[in-house]
Amino acid sequence: MKSILTMAWTAEDPSAFDLAAKIARTFGARLIGLEPPSYGVMSMAWADAGMGAPIGGGLAEDAEERQRVAAVKQAFDQRAAGLVSEWRSADDSGPTAIGTIGRAYDLIVLPQPGALPKMPESVFETALFDSGRPVLVVPPGFTGMVGKRILFAWNGSTESARAISLAMPVLSGAETIEVLSVEGAMVPGPTSAEIAESLKSHGLNVTGQHVKPGSKTAGQTIIDRAQALGADLIVKGAYTQSRLRQMIFGGVTRDLILSSPLPVLFSY
User: Fold this and answer.
1) Which residues belong to any copy of the UspA domain (predicted)?
2) Per-residue DSSP letters for 154-200?
3) Residue 115: CA count within 13 A, CB half-sphere
4) pLDDT of the residue at 14
5) pTM across the whole model
6) Residue 267 forms beta bridges with which residues?
7) Does the pLDDT of residue 44 top 60, yes or no?
């Protein structure tokens, strides 16, 4: 892993920058900070979330926007000190730019999305669907490091299989990995035990576990198991069910996107 792209939505939540810089130092990677889209160009994202926002702003709004971006850049510069780093400005950071720009980097690191004032969920989705790269989502206030104790959320799907390959630079440095499957949240495919055996062939310390969720959702079952293990990272193939279905009915991917207290590495 030699190049990392990261974005923060506000300077008040620099957790993505913190973790991206730590990973860059660990891997000797180049770190690129991407200026967040303005509130104006993201007006459609607010509308998707049921919140109105003006497409254009007056001078006061423009000044506030400049202050927001300047504060985000300052937060990036502070954390990138001593690294080979670069800041990419608004000229190439429209609302969908992170997906196309992200194709050139090994990893994308973003803050956990949600309702205002968090980053719009659509920015995460653009990065995930359009880049073809793994996306690491960092919850607010996270100050640790990732990659020593990993829970791999397996559901038998193609997306989960792809996650193995994309996450291998991180998996290969782990002290312990548990491959977890949840009854009722599987599709036809290999079992967690079979995936654990496959990963063991790479010289990794891996166990497989299949659990019943009881009264909990599959997403909460994964989170609870990760915390019980003392995991610092969850790895998940994203959206085996369609995005629209998950928005309406919920689903494991969306549970982890919006509410995981641990960083989650997603791939699609």
Assistant:
1) 192-265
2) --SSHHHHHHHHHHHHHHTT-SEEEEEEETTS--SS--HHHHHHHHH
3) 4
4) 96
5) 0.90
6) 237
7) no
